Every structure is written in structure tokens, then in C-alpha cells.
Amino acid sequence: MTAATIPEYMRRFRYKSPINVRNSPLQYAKQTQLASFDFIASKPDTLEDFNNTMTGVRLARSSWFSWFPVHEDLLKDYDQDTTLMVDIGGGWGHDLVAFRTTWAPDAALELQDLPHVIADAVNLPLNIKCREYDFLANQQPVKGARLYFFHFIFHDWPDDECLQILSNTACAMTPEYSKILINDFILPDRGCPTFPALMDINMLTIHQGLERSESQWRDLVKRSRLHISKMWAPNSSEEGIIELVKANIEDSSI
């Protein structure tokens, strides 16, 4: 039903991409003022379907750490007195558990999500701590972690909300040690494969979000207190990694 209203919605709003989280095709179709995740959470069956879908997506696609240089980029200089990885908006923990199994059976790890999601994240390994956390409303409570990880989070949000997430995370980062890894699509400017192109439409329809190209990622991060140190894109049909770091405050060149 929501997708069917897109032509009417776009005509009414002069074919501009939605940037208000309370005014998108979803709100237009459902006649609600609730933001998309609040709307989903208000309907238990829909929420369960959403969480099951996200679990399936994560399990069906190759894990980022199967090709990412985990040892060289994360473990080599890891301080064992800090948290190795904080999985923010990590759902029921499937990404984090898989990472733990392969790379970090004993390291300090943390799973963060909204209360109604964390409540169902059960039977996790003892070295995974669970925490209720809203990445838009609050500053990141885990200070100085090696890695703050976001999988399929930023594509759910317009730029202003993404910048708020980055700001709330940056305040917890240790310069030249902490990293943010964004596991999302990095689209080509032309010749985009079908699956991520459809995902882009899906994000617009439900979340006022979008799948971003490399230039869009760079433009977004330029507006934050962070900078991109590297990008990895195995191929344009799979999610890539955007690595962000925080410079020392004395370094005014970044």
C-alpha cells in the first residue's frame, strides 16, 4: 500500500526526496505522524516481521569481516582494557555473535539497540554486554572503544539524522584509536546493480532514507567532526565499509 502511493506523494511534494522523518510516503499512506520505526514498534506483528527480516538479511549475505582486514585494521593495536566492538542498532546480535566466533571469543563486546529490541536479544555469549540505547537521542555511553559498528543503519535516515548519529558517537571516540565502521552500500554514480537500486527505493518509501554513492558519503562526512580514512567496496552488489576516524583536536588540517 505504501509503495503504491509514491507517485501521488511525489507529485504533491514536487518530486523532492523526503528529508523530514515524519513526512514520507509511509506517513502519507498510513495517515500517521509517527516516524517509521515508531510506527513499526507500535504494531507487534509488524515489529516481529521487521526483526525477522533483518535477521534473514544479515544471515543471507556475506559478513563484512570475511574480506575486511580485521587483524591489521582492528586487532593489531587493540588495547584489551577497552571494548573491542560496539554494535550499534545491532538487533538481536547476529552480526556481533558471528564476529565474536571468528575473531573475538574473549574480548569485551557490546550490543546496543532500543529497549523493545534488546529485550529479545537472549542467550548471548557472556562477553557480549547488552545495553538499551537510542543513537539519535543520546551520546554514546561506551567511551574509547576500538570499533563502533553500524550495519544498515545510515541508509534508514536522511542526512541530518545521520549527522546526529555521528556527533553522538564522535564524542565517545579516542582520537587516533577509535574507529567507526559503516557497513552499507557504496553505490556507483552510474550503472547501479538492481538490488541496491531497489533498496534505495525501499529506504525512501519507508524510512526517508537512501543508499548513498561514494560522493554522497564523502559529502555527508565532510559536515561532521570526523573524516573518512578508507573505503572498501568488494563489489557494487554487496555492502561496503566506510571507515571514519576522529583527528586530534590540535590537528586543524582535517
Description:
The chain starts with 5 loop residues before the first helix and ends in a 9-residue tail after the last strand. It is globular and about 55 Å long. 36% of the residues lie in helices and 16% in strands. By secondary structure, it is of the alpha/beta class. The chain has a seven-stranded mixed beta sheet with strand order 3-2-1-4-5-9-8, with helices on both faces. Strands 6-7 form a two-stranded parallel sheet. Mean pLDDT is 89; it is low at 250-254.
Core attributes:
disordered C terminus; two-stranded parallel ribbon; single chain; 254 residues; alpha/beta; globular
Q: Biggest β-sheet: count, sense, barrel?
A: 7 strands, mixed
Give the structural class: alpha/beta
Instruction: Tell me the total number of β-strands.
Output: 9
Q: Calculate the mean pLDDT score and round it.
A: 89
Written as H for each helix and E for each strand, in order along the chain, the element string is: HHHHHEHEHEEHEEHEHEE
In what order do the strands lie side by side in the largest sheet? Answer: 3-2-1-4-5-9-8
- Low-pLDDT stretches: 250-254
Radius of gyration: 18 Å
Instruction: Name the helicity range.
Output: 25-40%
User: Can you tell me the overall shape?
Assistant: globular
Question: What percent strand?
Answer: 15-25%
Q: What is the first-to-last residue Cα distance?
A: 46 Å
Number of helices: 10
